[in-house]
Amino acid sequence: MREKGRSFAEALSQAQALGYAEADPTFDVEGIDAAHKLVIMASLAFTMPLAFDKVYTEGISRISSEDIRYADELGYRIKHLGIARRTDHGVELRVHPTLIPQRRLIANVNGVMNAVLVSGDAVGSTLYYGAGAGAEATASAVIADIVDVARTLDVRPDQRVPAAGVALAEQGDTLVLPEEEVVTSYYLRISAHDKPGVMSQVATICSEQGISIEALIQHEPTEGEELVPVVILTSRAREACLREAVAQIESLETVEGDVVRIRVESLG
Question: Is 37 a catalytic residue?
């Protein structure tokens, strides 16, 4: 969408024609396939049971060319990320569109290429990059799985390495952090009437929820248009506080429609 200036529907249609997306693309575009992969990697990384039912999942079907342009203007790229992060309060498991600074390597993973960014205590950040779709890439992954299964056929059960790296009985009862408690920054796009005092109202609502405005874009409305898009980057805030702020902003008489909300991650 960003490189060719296509709409979401056009980009999806081309991906299906090339065999990169399924005829029924729900698993791809709604983040379900990414969530499946995320829970497996989280289980390996954090020695925890598979917890697909606890993954917050949000797709990319509502991402517009307008948001891509504003992200570029702010120095970001929009990517569909699966994030597994261990915090002092629990493990975050979430899949959603995300604004990432353009300078990050993972922000420049395009086309059919996929990447996994791993952060470790000693090694720091490492990136694993390769094709994530297409006939040969898929066939290679399937054959690798078959070989792994075949290698276990003549190994005694008590000598096999468990699929999760440790025996199921040794997996901890890890708390998955509810999405309402996740803390991150946000991109908000508001369609507002071009009247005095709108930004003052928005800033007051954000302040009351403990949210600061870090950056703002407001262009002149096009001729004949009554609504002007207002784009805001916020400070880090709890999801619950952000939701309350968005609900109050949407209730303003000077605001039309839903507020577009995309999470922001620095991945530094």
Answer: yes
